[in-house]
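SAMPLE LOG
Freezer: B-3
Tube label: C17
Construct: single chain, 329 aa
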Amino acid sequence: MTGVSNAVVEAHGLRKTYKQDVRALDGLSFSVAAGSVFALLGPNGAGKTTTVRILTTLSRPDEGNASVAGIDVLSQPGGVRSVIGSVSQHTGAIAQLTGRENLTIQGSLYGMRGSNLRRRVSDLLEQFGLAEAAKRQASTYSGGMRRRLDIATVLVHRPAVLFLDEPTTGLDPEGRAALWAVLTGLAAETGTTILVTTHYLEEADQYATRIAIVDQGRVVAEGTADELKDGLHGDSVLLELADSPSAEQVQHALARVPQVRRATADGSVVRARVTDGHGRCPPCWRASTRPVFPSCPSPSPGRRWMTFTCTTPATRSARQKGSQSHEHQ
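STRUCTURE (predicted):
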């Protein structure tokens, strides 16, 4: 772990074992600088959620210690709760209440009253693009709107640190990009420290100030995106498609491209690692579009969106977005 002089979140040697000897954390340590966006990146079961639960006082470690904003998580949990906001993987909004009512109740729980609370609620609804839907019940919101409402709700009392556990899971690429735009803007404009867990490599690469890669309950690598990519062999290719069958077709097509070292499909997302990203990305793009758009006939009402990303250690990312109309044969 790399120490941070202005750390707002610190975890040292966290260990946690659940029943049946399931070890969730195995000596996990990291620190988060004030005003930064810090990503815990790793597969499902790596220990990311357990870490967030400990830092937000919802669970206790078997060993180790942690602090948030200089407050000890184990000995002063009430103090920690007063300075944090936390959004879990599942929505915390009350479906029967309107967006405005959800935010107002949250502020009331933190002792906010009167015009100050009304003004704060209105400002947040505007900031998160929910002003026009403020009088609608949360049950009528789309997935992306509900995630924005969740985050706006935990920001009512102006927390110093915001914890987000896989906030973009289930959102489409456009919804993920919109949510990240809000989060990075929040960190830049207000200095809020944000710790986010994700298993999306491209999100951590593009938006996080610093990344800790977690596997089997330990931090196995930590650094900026460029620092971590410098230690990799080859470049990363990522494709987001409309459905899983298309992703499987693309996976098989990429496996036949020279210098593609590995291609895997996860739902509608295909990831591959290649040598010479600048030279191989165009062939990868052509190979990936052929099985999905075999004939590319005249436009039809059905449209497929595909996002193609080639990330190299030398460049942050080179992205092409293609929207092609076709008849699915």
